[in-house]
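User: Show me an example of a complex going from sequences to structure tokens.

Assistant: Sure. Here are the input components:
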Amino acid sequence: MTSLTAIRTLPRRASGAVGVAVPLAIAAGFLIPLVVTSPFQLQIYTLAVLNAAAVAPLVLSLGYTGLLNLSHGTFYGLGAYTTAILVTDHGWPFEAAALAAAVVAGLGGGLLSLASARVRGDYFVLVSLGLTIAMAQLLANLPDLTRGREGFFGIPQLDLFGLSFSEPVTGFYLCLALLAVLYLFLHRVISGFLGRTMLVVRYDDVAARSMGIRPLAVRATAMVVGSALVGVAGSFLVATVQFISPADFGFDASFMLSLYVIIGGMASLPGAVAVAVVFTLLNEQFRGISDYSVGLVGLAVLVAVFIRGKVLRDLFHSWRAHQEGRATDA
Amino acid sequence: MRLCNKRPGVLAAIAAATSLVLAGCAGGADTAGTVEEIRILVAAPLTGDSAETGKDLVDGAKLAADYLNEQGGVRSGPLKGRKFAVESADDQLKTEAATTIAARFASDDNLFALTGFLTSGQAQAAGVVLQKYKLPAVVSFASADFLTTEADNLVVVSASVANFARVAGTFAATELGAKSAGTIAGDYSFLDSYYKGLQESLTKGGAQIASKQSYPDGTADFSTMVTSLAKADPDVVMSGAFQADAGKIAAQVRRAGVDKPFVDFLGEGWGKTFADSVGSVLTQGDYYQMDPANVFPEPGSLLETMDKRFLAAYGKNIPTAAMHSFDSVLTVGAAIEAGATSKTDLLQYVTKATGQGLLGQIAFTTELTPKQRFGTMSKLTGPGPRDRELAASYVMNADGTVTPAK
């Protein structure tokens, strides 16, 4: 393989490697509590896994249908708040509350997807941004329901099928199991007919219609499924942290989740999951230099764009052509 | 063949993942220190909009550690002679970060105590994690009532926020002679506790709330609320707004022709942000600020000494946040001198701890709240942070009563 070919095929080979490594890493993750006993490390791994579980469903709407949805963090919050309210104030079991969270968040996603029938591109981004800001205000200013800006406190210890989220090891296993289930489900969806249909809608609406595909229905499906799944992830967050506040689900949260998908390669489920885990771990490792964290994320976006946009390959190609031209002249 | 081509990439990815896991495992190593030291971890926002207050929290804790070490460190008890050291962790004002910092504290045997926290939400989130390991935290600045009612492992150094409002209400009714008050505050759940204290103290002083206005977070135009408030013609206007909002509200109140005293009951502390928002109407009418501390120290007092040292070290008078973290470290020190030997038994000695702090005596109830704290009302005389004169000072008691200070 020549060096030029190696550079040209680097993104594809890297993508293939990540595609194999991430499922293996998820499976290997079940061994982590056997070697890591520190509560600090388990807490970080649990949060990293939860972040990955929250990011994964966004691949459907952002990656596969091309809707730049800046409300994903809001649906995460809707799921979290639904669970917190139901288990704390109404005594629901966690399993039922998690299902309700999926329904509420899915409905929210469905409503937002209706906007995609009227507006596209930048305007859809603005609509989703508006929803995120409005929902953050609502969560902060409905104290009787949400405990207001100071956050939702008093959430009891929760368990799922007899396994307690409050125990660091079982809590980690439950969150990792959620990630594994979501990953398998989403992988099945995007590898199948629905995934290919979403990609057609993303690239060409007209072509999709000519093939009998209804773009709005496809986008709505992606939004509803993605939102419902992140709502369940929100339930797991509540069970793990036992405290949430509106600030956790504002614009920053949605923005970062979208960036993870973009850096991971847009329509790459393993890429998004890997980036979410890596960034969460790095954020903890480099808490002392968190002043620069936003800059590092920006740098990662630039690198991702350079690689995905084939900028590096083209630069290398030009340089190589220039060198060959000089050699011929000589 | 395809698998062969992929193998180096797969191996590289697995190696990268493994290195991350190993890097994660090594995360606590940076906290290693000598066992001879009492290491105190301060959680504070060191980046973002609240970074200045976060730095004040850390600096106050460092000042306290230096102060204790100058006296020989721990002066009595099983750990006599040990010195104090302070570490900081950026909590980014995020719940997630608060939980990992709490977990780090639980994991690291070299850390003796966890303190700091600017907001009650973060303190509560950290408390939930610490509860699993039966460990406490000494909460420096946050003081929502639910920290006491919902957790039994959080020592709250600040007075109850209901008492903040009691100080302002008592002052308005007794010193200003108000019979009616118009209140305006953000529509936040934690203000329920404030209003409870305000209502009680006003009623006790023979006054009542004539107009109660609230606004959602993010409001910029307060004219509707100000108009309603002006119609009630109260004797005082009482603000439960953060200083940026309070300044705008004060400006709009004055422009509406209401020149009655403008009295703060939030106790956040007004500074440059308030003065900038008020603008030129600062000279129109009187403004009274509530501080949950004695901000007019007597000559030779511990507070005056530390104020001078803080000024010399950091170029400004000691802010309220730093006073709270200072007293948090002193609380840990006093608990050790009372007999605590590790972070697991710190909580049981907190109620036995005694000493003199910047906020008042170091003495806690069985509810893990301070027995007494100072509260002062001061009148603004200019836009600078020290342009004010003492109007009244009070003692805030744990039983919910407020009495004039001697």
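The lines above are the inputs; the final block is the predicted structure for all two components together. Chain B touches chain A through 52 residues (CB under 8 Å).
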